[in-house]
Amino acid sequence: MNRYGGGMPEAPGSLTSLRSRNRLLVVETVQRRGRISRVGIARATGLSRTTVSSLVADLLAEGVLTETADGAEHRASPGGGRPATPLTLNPEGGGVLGVHLRHAGIRVLFADLSGGVLGERYQELDVDHRPDDALAYVADTALDLVAAVGHDAGRVFGMGIAVSAPMQSQSRTLRTSSVLAGWTGVDIAARLRERVGLPVHVGNDANLGALAEWTFGAGQGADDLIYVMLSDGVGAGLILGGELYEGATGSAGELGHIPVLDGGYVCRCGNRGCLETVVGLRALTSAFTHTRGPDTTIADVVALLAADDPGARRVTTDAGRMVGRALVGICAMLEPRRVVIGGEVAAVGRPLLEGVRDMLTRQLPPPIGQEVTVTAGRLGDRAEALGAIALATQSTSAHLLAR
Fold first, then answer.
1. Tell me, what's the pLDDT at 169?
2. Are 196 and 139 in contact (CB under 8 A)?
3. How confident is the model at residue 25 (pLDDT cuts 50, 70, 90)?
4. DSSP letter assigned to residue 241
5. Count of helix runs (H) and strand runs (E) in the chain
């Protein structure tokens, strides 16, 4: 069984099973790196060059991978051997859908198997309290998006869903949660599978944001990282040893519901002073309402920072320090190479990152504090939906390659 729950039909100890696992390992490595040579795959996976060449030949013949003629790797080796031609997932091999069910809106992406976005829709909606409307919008929009792009519906292999709530790690269903109380008992995968006729794979949005930044964005090349999602809610996703880590029950990374302020505002989870009530999207913009009015947006805050407004700089730096305070213990225990800050709030940029770095540098033991880097995510507000794309693509690959 792969880490996302896709089963291999062969006997676990058989040569066929081993080859299937190695095929999937090659495909996942190509997906994470985007473009990589056969030699690069061998180095990254530990497989022999002969094994990699054999697997790649099969995957090229099946149309799963394709060779590209450009790129820095397409050059003769120093000994005059065959050029190290980069390999990518074949964009024409099919498509997948990725959905982010945010608290206050829904993003739907349609992408090819290499992660290239072919179409996108976004709709503001009270997702927390309107599950029926939310799922109806996802199903209708997904089908419309595929049709609008003009893609062959028969080559759409699956759908990934990023949900703003903890997930059961084995069943991939929502855990009972006060955060999405209206969704209790809703089988998201089954409901959507019935309406769109595709395999549906569900994951926590911060976890999938981590998967996306590790696969496509700022986390590439760092197999130990923490992704912090600062948006309507606040969450974290962990990549440890090149694997998405979800914890014993699937609830690892609930950073937003760690109390950081005694006597603070009541959080959606029922506790007081949670990180989300201090640095979430609403909390950050509300800090400006007494001077800028109740309709202040994150774009307004970004504009104030661009104008070097001292109040905006203070608020966002303090928010970063509060995030850093919540991360100190986690970083001390796990020693990640990289902390990636994503979500809508990350658009405020440098003062936020400086606040996080400042707190980690001052409070972590020197060897750890000097090694961990803090960087902004590259994928913006698409990250969680792109993570859903990566989840669906990997689950699709596991299914197709095991046949």
1. 58
2. yes
3. confident
4. T
5. 14, 12
Contact residues for 303 (Cβ-Cβ < 8 A; gap 6+) = none
Superfamily of domain 94-205+383-401: ATPase, nucleotide binding domain (3.30.420.40)
Q: Is 322 left (phi over 0), alpha (psi -120 to 50) or beta?
A: alpha
Largest CA distance in the chain: 69
Q: How far apart are CA 89 and CA 56, in angstroms?
A: 11
Instruction: Name the packing angle between helices 350-363 and 310-334 (round to 10°).
Output: 40
Q: Which residues pair with 234 in a beta bridge?
A: 230
Predicted TM-score (pTM) of the model is 0.84
pLDDT value at 5 more than 60: no
- How far, in Å, CA of 223 to CA of 152, rounded? 35
Mean pLDDT (the chain) is: 86
Question: Residue 311: what are its φ and ψ, rounded to 5°?
Answer: -65, -45
Helix/strand/coil percent split, the chain, to 5:
45, 20, 35
CATH code, 15-89? 1.10.10.10
Whether the Cβ atoms of residue 59 and residue 106 lie closer than 8 Å to each other: no
The one-letter amino acid code at 53 reads S
Distance CA 112, CA 95 (A): 4
Cα distance from N-terminal residue to C-terminal residue, the chain? 14
Is there a common fold for 94-205+383-401 and 218-377?
yes
Looking at residue 175, what is its pLDDT?
A: 63
CA distance 348 to 346: 5
Q: What is d(CA 306, CA 190) in angstroms, rounded to the nearest whole number?
A: 46
pLDDT of res. 35: 83
More confident call, 319 vs 19: 319
Range list of H helices, 197-229: 205-216
Does CATH number 3.40.50.2000 belong to domain 218-377? no
Split at pLDDT 50, 70, 90, the class of 229 is very high
β-bridge partners, 254: none
Of 49-53, 174-178, 366-370, least confident by mean pLDDT is: 174-178
